Amino acid sequence: MPEHWVFVPKPHEVGSWKKVPSDFCPFIPVRRGQCINGVTYYLAWIDMYNSVLVSFDIRSEELTMSQIPRRDDGDGSRKNVSLIEYGGKVTLLDSNHLRDKGMLVLRVLEDAGINKEWSKKTMVLHPYQLHLVQVDIIFNVNGTSQSGKLVLIPQVLVSPFHILCYDLQRNDMRKIEIKGIPDNWFRKHKLD
């Protein structure tokens, strides 16, 4: 049985490690975590094909594991799935069809209690914005801004460098070009 430990800092002293009780299967964290209202959430593999949502409540030091909804195609993998904060709640953002269909699927954890209720929202880009994602650049979700806009960054540094900012509330995406990056940071060829 795996053990889980938490480092407890103490003011003006050296902190110490404390064992946290847990009675569930071993897991391997796979994505950067998201802290919302004192709870840290992250995705973790429990086997080769399935992942779960792990949460750690900082106040109670309670560690819990929740089954996450499968994608509509039945795939339990988390390829191109990110954790974001959406409306103050932890949300799975599935961007598997962003490039080919201009579509994002959000699964919001509405009730983090015993029932673990998820809602689903599908966002589809306006046809006049599809050119922003249907390019030779693969974008990765980098989280949300303080105003709740989704930030997408290119997987590879290419010139001219830009990011995409997707306002999920208004279903509107815009391109933001970043200037002043030295030419030697870019790949050898440039994309048009």
From TrEMBL:
<dbReference type="Pfam" id="PF08268">
    <property type="entry name" value="FBA_3"/>
</dbReference>
<feature type="domain" description="F-box associated beta-propeller type 3">
    <location>
        <begin position="3"/>
        <end position="189"/>
    </location>
</feature>
<protein>
    <submittedName>
        <fullName>F-box/associated interaction domain protein</fullName>
    </submittedName>
</protein>
<dbReference type="InterPro" id="IPR013187">
    <property type="entry name" value="F-box-assoc_dom_typ3"/>
</dbReference>
<dbReference type="InterPro" id="IPR017451">
    <property type="entry name" value="F-box-assoc_interact_dom"/>
</dbReference>
